[in-house]
Design a protein that fits this description.
alpha+beta, seven-stranded antiparallel sheet, five-stranded antiparallel sheet, globular
């Protein structure tokens, strides 16, 4: 969680598809919209220089006058120090011991609203971490975050935050005030029966500002927009998203498109918002929708693996997918041909993810058991989501801090990359083998939760926290080791099976086949698909034609 993100000039965030060079995705489900009653939030931390690790900050008591150092996540720059409260909570990744979970996505917004005083002390990453250290509920986290930026100044650009606890989930949108200290912000509670999401676009528009139970906002949210010339209508028509950011078609496609693809999985009528996504309509998507069916944990994980399958933006069939139907496009995302600018799609699943999670906060379980982070490293499409509980106090060695420039056979991040980067070249051939191992591991971890959590809950209810934490740490270590070891073996298997462009024959269990004398069977030559061959002929004419 406290790794450094790729730092880009703000101007780069506002240009065409390049906006998504530094980009994250959050998906949300309220407790009455989820299949098991949990509040769920997902987060993909996407950056080309981000190492995938699981962070931990232990609970602690602090003496009067003790200070907390604040370091900018993006640059590593020391921003200052703030007083510690008497006690701070245990934090595992992006969830704390009270089941509060927070994710984010950057949208940049108006350039002139980035701090110009040089005195702002709280960046968006520190804002998340400090709130987790100090909050028992989502509402407390919102108050903590907004109070921090008001008191110490906001050192980042426009952000959306998903903030959940075991009872409810909110979206907070926030941007600085340029030469003025602090930030303007608005927070909206997502209804329990709804799903929502944000992906590098502000999404809060016209809301009932009199609904104090479900809407919170800074006292100068509208007046500041008026003063700066961003808004001139009636208060009841105010849209935070439209006052503090622009929404060109290319940004919608690369950002809101991801939320749209999530919505349409659970409510087909939201297909109609495709016109907003591709810039053919100015009727925006709503902040949230009520799905036609409830969302399971497995479906939430699957949603994080989305490549626009089943939509006009689907990524495996155009010429960029190549002969092996690869749903990935290398950066830069935009390109020019004959003076016109085009862009590749930006899906939820992307190669540059450092780490991601699906959090569950559950009100029917004791807090140490109810809060679980299904955590994975690297690309969401090929990662294994492993369950780690909010009461854990030790990070498995396979998920410890590492170096993105130093390969490590024992690191989960590197083993997931080892597998994924082979599949990026021969996707349709390798993904079935990856899905098999990924599915076995995730299926095992999910199927064992009921019995495991019943045991954990019994320990928590009788107050045996020492045993509970010890067992959670041990299970977490075992899971991380198993997933890492299996992917190390999987990466080796893929290399051997698909060596030299061939495809070795295997039986139903994936074992390499041999003839009756014990020698390997001759491999298959999968070659390329017909469309690829046709494109060669279109490009080269008779150059490769065999003359009769």
């Amino acid at each position: 969680m406290n790794r450094k993100y790729l730092t880009l000039p703000l101007a780069a965030l506002a240009t065409t598809c390049g906006f998504n060079a530094l980009a994250c995705t959050n998906l949300i489900a309220g407790k009455k919209a989820s299949a098991d009653g949990s509040v769920m939030v997902t987060y993909a931390a996407d950056s080309h220089s981000l190492y995938g690790m699981l962070s931990h900050t232990p609970a602690a008591d602090h003496k009067p006058g003790e200070m907390r150092q604040v370091v900018d996540w993006d640059s590593g720059k020391h921003l200052g120090e703030i007083p510690q409260p008497a006690h701070t909570y245990n934090v595992v990744g992006n969830i704390n011991e009270h089941q509060v979970a927070i994710g984010e996505s950057t949208w940049g917004g108006r350039e002139e609203l980035v701090d110009t005083t040089g005195q702002a002390m709280i960046d968006y990453g520190s804002l998340i971490q400090i709130a987790l250290e100090r909050s028992k509920t989502a509402r407390e986290a919102i108050k903590e975050m907004t109070s921090l930026v008001e008191k110490y100044g906001y050192a980042s650009s426009g952000e959306s935050f998903s903030i959940a606890d075991k009872n409810e989930v909110w979206v907070l949108e926030l941007i600085g005030k340029g030469a003025e200290k602090g930030a303007v912000w608005i927070a909206v509670r997502i209804p329990d029966d709804a799903i929502s999401g944000h992906a590098n676009e502000p999404r809060i528009r016209k809301v009932n500002l009199k609904d104090k139970e479900n809407v919170m906002y800074s006292k100068d949210m509208i007046s500041f927009a008026r003063k700066r010339g961003y808004f001139s209508g009636k208060d009841e028509d105010f849209s935070f998203a439209d006052a503090y950011a622009d929404h060109p078609a290319d940004t919608r496609r690369g950002c809101d498109g991801r939320v749209w693809s999530y919505f349409r999985r659970f409510k087909p009528e939201t297909d109609s918002y495709y016109t907003w996504v591709v810039g053919e309509s100015d009727e925006p998507m709503p902040l949230y929708i009520v799905p036609d069916r409830k969302v399971s944990l497995a479906e939430m994980q699957e949603s994080m693996r989305d490549h626009f399958e089943g939509t006009p933006l689907e990524m495996t069939s155009d010429i960029g997918a190549g002969p092996n139907h690869v749903p990935y496009r290398w950066r830069p995302m935009d390109f020019e041909v004959d003076g016109k600018t085009y862009c590749n799609e930006r899906a939820i699943a992307t190669q540059q993810t450092g780490w991601s999670f699906v959090s569950q906060s559950r009100d029917w379980l004791p807090d140490p058991v109810g809060g679980v982070l299904w955590f994975g490293t690297d690309d969401t499409n090929t990662t294994v989501y492993m369950p780690f509980y909010c009461a854990m106090t030790e990070v498995p060695s396979q998920l410890a801090e590492g170096d993105i420039n130093t390969f490590d056979w024992n690191a989960n991040f590197w083993m997931t990359n080892w597998v994924a980067n082979q599949a990026y070249n021969r996707y349709d051939l390798m993904i079935p083998d990856i899905r098999k191992v990924q599915g076995e591991l995730e299926g095992k971890y999910q199927s064992t939760r009921p019995a495991t959590e019943a045991h954990y809950a019994e320990l928590a209810n009788r107050g045996d926290m020492n045993t509970l934490v010890k067992e959670m740490n041990a299970e977490g270590a075992a899971i991380a080791k198993e997933a890492t070891d299996r992917y190390r073996d999987l990466g080796t298997y893929l290399l051997v099976r698909f060596m030299d462009g061939n495809m070795k024959k295997v039986d139903a269990d994936g074992n390499f086949m041999k003839n009756e004398y014990g020698l390997p069977l001759y491999p298959d030559f999968p070659g390329y698909d017909q469309k690829y061959y046709e494109n060669i002929v279109k490009e080269t004419g008779d150059h490769f034609l065999i003359k009769k």
